[in-house]
Amino acid sequence: MFSVFWKLDWFFKKYWKRYSFAIVALIAASLIDLVPPKLVGMAIDEMQFQTFNWDRMLELLMLYGLIIILSYTISFLWDYNLFGGAAIMEKLMRSRLMHHFLRMTPTFFGKYRTGDLMARSTNDLKAISMTTGFGILTLVDSSIFMLMIIAVMGFTISWNLTIAALLPLPIMAVVMQKYGNVIHDRFTKAQHAFGEMNNEVLESIRGVRVIRAFVQEEQDEQRFQIMTSDVYQKNLEVAKIDALFEPTMKILVGLSYTVGLGYGAMLVFQNVLTIGELVSFNVYLGMLIWPMFAVGELINVMQRGNASLDRVNETLGYQADVRDPLQPSSAPSPESIVFDKVSFAYPDSAQDSLVAIDFKVEKGQTIGVVGKTGAGKTTLFKQLLREYPGMRGDLRISGIPIEQLSLEDVRSWIGYVPQEQILFSKTIRENIQFGKPEATDKEIFRVMETAQFLKDIQALPKGLDTKVGESGVTLSGGQKQRVSLARAFIKDPQILILDDALSAVDGKTEANIIGHLKKERKNKTTFIAAHRLSAVEHADLVIVLNGGKVVEKGTHQQLMEINGWYAAQFELQQLEEQEVIS
């Protein structure tokens, strides 16, 4: 159960001063709280023996006032430091998770779904935070504070009465341990179910247009109801165990009270105890109720925190498939890119998606990559982005194997516009500035002209300050694509990769964008993957992929002379365009 503290030792070592002060202050506050019951007993005995007077009452009231002020001040200090430490823990763990997520490869996000990662970043972190805050409180109260109360009861009143009243404690320890084991197992299942439900909600929101288009609203609601029922049932199983803690504690506390009152009254009749001592004992026994409850709360919080920490550590323990070399090489800029017999298969595939890819790119060249759907165009670009491990052959940039270059260097050279445009739920200005945070409006308008987005921005009610909504939902497919292009253009990267990034624009807009690219990127490398071959007609080198292999290679003119797939596809597209015009 307490293994959660060992797992968090890095945190407690870092903030040991804060926690040491909080624990010392908590113990001091507990010690102060032990004084009033003794004063009550003394006052009762003095009244019984008729030695109590107004001066004594004033003295006790002033002492009580001082105790209240001290208790309040010290309680504030331990509360602030202890629960402030819990907030720091949550912040640190959330930052570590975010740092981890940003460095993970697609393999990681294939294994862990978004909803589950969100659950680990919210509910699980809250449970861990409870462990480092409320968990420490219950640990101190259920151990040190309980021992202090027992010591005061034993040394100042009667050990026989104290031991008799605490006989139910061993029973409590056994029962709480059994409850704790069940809580750990059930809470882990409940958190997993919550993550799955999160996934379902995210997918439904993202795909709401498709759901409506296929009239699947009722079916989606039914699927969601099944998942919420599963989450409800699993949390109900946790709640059932939670519900057993309090009644169990009440029964055991009731037994302690029964023994304390019965045996204590007998000791009073035998003149072993005074009435004041018996009253003090019962007040202390009442104070012992919370530490006894704290034992149950401690086990509950520890097991929840342990289960959540295991889930979070499992995520943080996932090693990135692609990592920086121990001693990375450096290059000032990508002067050349060489694919030398590069082959690649995805981690879960037995078949190669790229087979012996061979070509060379000099700085300033434009490379067209074409082929049928699934030919391997995107996979080729992913080798430059180093998204997956397992590449065979040599991929060199400026003569240096890409594995020997740092990920940051390689990716800092690249501007990437993927097939599926990702826009953030911010303004158009903020989305474009993502490529260059310090970009001015003048620079933004310049790249929007290159991306053929000026007319669109003028038509929008708030111009650059128009919010694009969740994943750009307020924009059309072509608009999203051109905002993504502008975001890549403003970075002015050494290597620009357009992965079928002109598919949602018409032929005229595409021609204008290509014309601007020719002027803007004279001395920089550009890769263009496209289904419309007119987008790569101007390229210095066109590569035709089929089944992950280079089946044709050359300039537009050379490929037309070969009269292969490229030539046939180009002529077919020209005929289709003429038919549309006519």
TrEMBL record:
<dbReference type="InterPro" id="IPR039421">
    <property type="entry name" value="Type_1_exporter"/>
</dbReference>
<dbReference type="GO" id="GO:0016887">
    <property type="term" value="F:ATP hydrolysis activity"/>
</dbReference>
<feature type="transmembrane region" description="Helical">
    <location>
        <begin position="157"/>
        <end position="176"/>
    </location>
</feature>
<keyword id="KW-0813">Transport</keyword>
<dbReference type="InterPro" id="IPR027417">
    <property type="entry name" value="P-loop_NTPase"/>
</dbReference>
<keyword id="KW-0812">Transmembrane</keyword>
<keyword id="KW-1003">Cell membrane</keyword>
<dbReference type="GO" id="GO:0015421">
    <property type="term" value="F:ABC-type oligopeptide transporter activity"/>
</dbReference>
<dbReference type="InterPro" id="IPR011527">
    <property type="entry name" value="ABC1_TM_dom"/>
</dbReference>
<feature type="domain" description="ABC transmembrane type-1">
    <location>
        <begin position="21"/>
        <end position="304"/>
    </location>
</feature>
<protein>
    <submittedName>
        <fullName>ATP-binding cassette, subfamily B</fullName>
    </submittedName>
</protein>
<keyword id="KW-0472">Membrane</keyword>
<dbReference type="Pfam" id="PF00664">
    <property type="entry name" value="ABC_membrane"/>
</dbReference>
<feature type="domain" description="ABC transporter">
    <location>
        <begin position="337"/>
        <end position="572"/>
    </location>
</feature>
<dbReference type="InterPro" id="IPR003593">
    <property type="entry name" value="AAA+_ATPase"/>
</dbReference>
<keyword id="KW-0547">Nucleotide-binding</keyword>
<dbReference type="InterPro" id="IPR003439">
    <property type="entry name" value="ABC_transporter-like_ATP-bd"/>
</dbReference>
<keyword id="KW-1133">Transmembrane helix</keyword>
<dbReference type="GO" id="GO:0005886">
    <property type="term" value="C:plasma membrane"/>
</dbReference>
<dbReference type="InterPro" id="IPR036640">
    <property type="entry name" value="ABC1_TM_sf"/>
</dbReference>
<dbReference type="InterPro" id="IPR017871">
    <property type="entry name" value="ABC_transporter-like_CS"/>
</dbReference>
<feature type="transmembrane region" description="Helical">
    <location>
        <begin position="127"/>
        <end position="151"/>
    </location>
</feature>
<feature type="transmembrane region" description="Helical">
    <location>
        <begin position="281"/>
        <end position="301"/>
    </location>
</feature>
<feature type="transmembrane region" description="Helical">
    <location>
        <begin position="61"/>
        <end position="88"/>
    </location>
</feature>
<dbReference type="Pfam" id="PF00005">
    <property type="entry name" value="ABC_tran"/>
</dbReference>
<dbReference type="GO" id="GO:0005524">
    <property type="term" value="F:ATP binding"/>
</dbReference>
<feature type="transmembrane region" description="Helical">
    <location>
        <begin position="251"/>
        <end position="269"/>
    </location>
</feature>
<keyword id="KW-0067">ATP-binding</keyword>
